[in-house]
Amino acid sequence: MQNLPDDAPGVENPVRYRMSNSSAFWLLAVALALLLFASAAPSPMYPVYQQMWHYSPLVSTAVYAANAIALLVTLLFAGSLSDHVGRRPVLIAAVLVELAGTLAFAEAQSVTWLFVARIVQGIATGLATGAISAALIDLQPAESRLGALMGNVAAGGGLALGAISSGLLVAYAPAPTRLVYWLLAAAFTIIVIGVLVIPETVAADGRAMASLRPKVSVPQPVRAAFITLVPSIIASWALGGLYLALGGALMRVQFHLTSPLAGGLVVVALQGTSAVTALLARDWTIDQALRRGPILLITGVSVALLAAATHSVWLFFAASMIAGFGFGPSFSGALRLLTGQTPAENRAEVVTAVYVVSYLALSIPAVLAGLSVNQFGLATTTYLYGAVVIVLETIAMLGSTRHRSAHTALAGAICPAPCPGTVAPSPRVLAAHL
Question: At the N or C end, where does the chain have fewer CB atoms within 10 A?
Fold first, then answer.
């Protein structure tokens, strides 16, 4: 999508200064990382909250679910709103709402505050996810695939940094349930000021109210590819949800590590490796990413299950890193393919559909796993969960093998947008290939 001039019809120009496209791109990448950082930050604190307010582990699961439900409802109603009112207004609203949720966490006085804070946080993340991901593609350098790459790096890196930073503060810093949130509040204040001066890339089209109807849709040209890749998206994000929801419990029960830092480190092993791999594998073609990512993920999960059975913590960390090597390419390859074959005016819609699937997979299986622990125990739940992840990833790998030549042809081999010197195929041509 071309950046619109400030005097274009439908684009407000409330201030004279506008940030450059390059600066705005990196600001939004940081904003996405901070949103995911804030989402992961409470994970190491749940045991502390539980001791303070004497609630059952099931309540922690409910708090986790409240965030996911709020996020998904927001995605369903407003995930594509930025396609119709512009990226900037949606992002300003999202960051302000996130700031409110962060302050609620910082001043939490009871478990009710946790529910409120997580719901508000879910609303903010739901508002921002589609808008930021689409804006990164709008603002990426010409003839580049940096937008999809940085979306993946920022998400994985934000989750990893949020978990480890929060774990460190809980273990070693004063005010363990407040300090990280006050630091985040300061960061989001800076972000909202920056968003005020980013360039707008979408003109308002008067269809904002119509876009608020709850829907998840994928344009016909990429529908077959989307269906093929859904099992892989579910498998990878469900694995991330298991680590966020039960990583600390696994460290305590299976490996006898009681420090809050251990729960943060295991998330870093998966999500941090995922973010690094997204950078290292940035020159992989879509074909390579869709082939290698699932193999690495399946291998990592298989070894992690062996480590859990043998109580080998070092093997578990190594396995988590192997799974992380697969997580990044699996998701970035899918996102590159889908956004690259979507018209610019529908990008947020497609990104929203991807993230609806992602956050359903991140939350619902983890919540079910938390409930299953009470019924069947942590070890049995872990083995069953891992087996489902392996099966789903295998299905996706076989499906993408069947369609791989079509994927490669449609995506121009490596680009999430038309490659240098090529012209994007028309929807009719895409439909014929799919």
Answer: N
